[in-house]
Amino acid sequence: MNAALSIDLESYWHAELLRSRVDRSSADDRVIAATEPLLDLLSAKGLRATFFVVGEVLHRYPQLLQRIVDEGHEIGCHTHTHRPLWELTESEFEQELIRFEEEVERHLPGVTPRGFRAPTFSLSPDTSWALAALANHGYSYDSSVFPMKTPLYGVPGCPAAPYHPALNLVEHDPTNPILEWPMTAWRVGPLTIPVCGGFYLRVLPMPLILRGLRAAKAQGPIVIYLHPWELDEGTPRLSLSRPDRFITYHNVGKPMRRRLETLLDQFEFSTMADVLKLCL
Ligand SMILES: [Zn+2]
Question: How many angstroms is it from 35 CA to the middle of ligand 1?
């Protein structure tokens, strides 16, 4: 078993292009409506996943989180408020971890998150100080490195397989207690094609994604990610610029759900901790 499915459990309004544009006091966050059908799908297929949870969502929906735990999924941390690392000081990041831990202790006793994902893949050489904080807070692994440069994020040249990173995130440092598992890419010659889920799963042709994932899986473990709101027909469509609308809404709803179902039929997914053989 060397394929992991990771779900970034957040509301549609936590997305980077929307987070400052939604009046949260009046809007329905659609977390339950978006997440329950996904849990039903995973349950029907007998698959478990890693849920990187925003603490605000755990605070608001402890029963949903209890269902996720009861169904055998892994709980990881996606910070408390979903602000990217580039917006936080080191002490603000510590506070994010502490607030998240408080919510877990209060609502999910017995659960110890071992994995972390930075909002918007915001781990870069400029923010890699976060890895030491994760180690201090008892985390074992991080999955926040995106393997190519994009306008917002990315660490080109990072290793393909899980590794113990140096602060530049490209070289190895065996003394780093944190294991980094970058998002999966298909590396062909000079090309790096991100076949790892989310926006890329909504946009790239499905045969290309399947071929790329098979090629990557022949080299090592693969990990894909997505958000429940990407599967939800009811995700509110906000008025955005044309490029932002494409990034945020292209193939959201049924098309993405069909794409996920295709992946679930083709690969035997499990949690990241399972694939990393961590004892939780
Ligand atoms: Zn996120």
Answer: 14
Whole-angstrom distance, CA of residue 19 vs CA of residue 101: 23
Per-domain residue ranges of the chain = 3-276
The pLDDT value recorded for residue 23 is 81
Tell how far the Cα of 84 is from the centroid of ligand 1, in angstroms. 9
Q: Which residue has the higher pLDDT, 18 or 187?
A: 187
DSSP conformation letters of 162-225: -B-B-TTSSSB-TT--PEE-PPP-EEETTEEE--SBHHHHHHS-HHHHHHHHHHHHHHS-EEEE
CATH 3.10.560.10 for domain 3-276, yes or no, is: no
Mean pLDDT across the chain: 95
Average pLDDT over residues 106-117: 97
This prediction has a pTM of 0.96
Q: How far is the CA of 139 from the centre of ligand 1 (A)?
A: 18
Q: Cα(258) to centroid of ligand 1, in Å?
A: 22
133 confidence band (pLDDT: 50, 70, 90) = very high
Between β-strands 115-116 and 141-142, what pairing exists: parallel, antiparallel or unpaired? parallel
- First-to-last alpha carbon distance for the chain, in angstroms, is 17
